[in-house]
Amino acid sequence: MGDKKTDIFNCGRELFYSKGFKDTNISDITKVLGIGVGTFYNYYASKEKLFFEIYFKENETLKKRIMESLNLNDDPVTLVKEFVSQNLKAMNSNLILKEWYNRDISSQLEQNYSDDNKKKDDSVQLFYSDLLRTWKDEGKIRADIDDEIILAFFNSLAYIDSHKKDIGTQYFPQLIEYLVEFIMKGLTGIQK
């Protein structure tokens, strides 16, 4: 066995992925690893803390994979819609990421995202910032809208997603897909 924290993380990831958050217990992890429960608590204060670390790492990996898969030569509407579509599909097919929509844990996930990981995960923000500058330079999006406001449109989508319960979870992910389409068509002036 290597580093115990890494072993706990990897085992937790496998169990959360196969069983989900609710059906995975600390004792499941410690039994698989052959360690005591006290050893678990030396590295993680709770099952939730382990899950949050796994969730945000999984989310970061997904976003990077999607960004690498996109055709940056696509028109802006197609590219951003594809990013959101791939993200939503992955979130619904990955038991770890699907917990974002689980009422039992989603509030805690949202709070942890807002407090810690929003500051750390700026890869998507940088990705869009670079693309927006390129698109503006190429005349593919409106030049009359300030870059900060354009980024605020994208940030508002994350805000809306983190308030899905207030809006109604039954409308997700279709609401986000429509909003992305409307925003991008407005920014490009495309009326398809």
Describe the structure.
This protein has 192 residues and is an all-alpha fold. The protein has two domains: 1-44, Arc Repressor Mutant, subunit A (Orthogonal Bundle); 49-188, Tetracycline Repressor, domain 2. The chain has helices at 4-19, 26-33, 37-43, 47-69, 76-93, 103-120, 123-137, 147-162, 164-167, 174-188. Helix 1 (4-19) crosses helix 2 (26-33), helix 5 (76-93) packs antiparallel against helix 10 (174-188) and helix 8 (147-162) runs antiparallel to helix 10 (174-188). The mean pLDDT is 87.
Low-confidence stretches: none
Q: Summarize the biggest pleated sheet.
A: none
Judged by helices, strands and strand pairing, the structural class is mainly alpha
Count the E strands. Answer: 0
Shape: elongated
Order of helices and strands: HHHHHHHHHH
Provide the helix percentage. Answer: over 70%
What's the number of structural domains?
A: 2
N-C termini distance: 56 Å
Average residue pLDDT: 87
CATH architecture label of the largest domain: Orthogonal Bundle
Instruction: Please give the count of helices.
Output: 10
The CATH class label of the largest domain is Mainly Alpha
Task: Could you tell me the CATH topology label of the largest domain.
Answer: Tetracycline Repressor, domain 2
What fraction of the residues are assigned to beta strands by DSSP?
under 5%
Radius of gyration: 19 Å
Quaternary state reads: single chain
Key terms:
10 helices, 73% helix, mainly alpha, elongated, Arc Repressor Mutant, subunit A, 192 residues
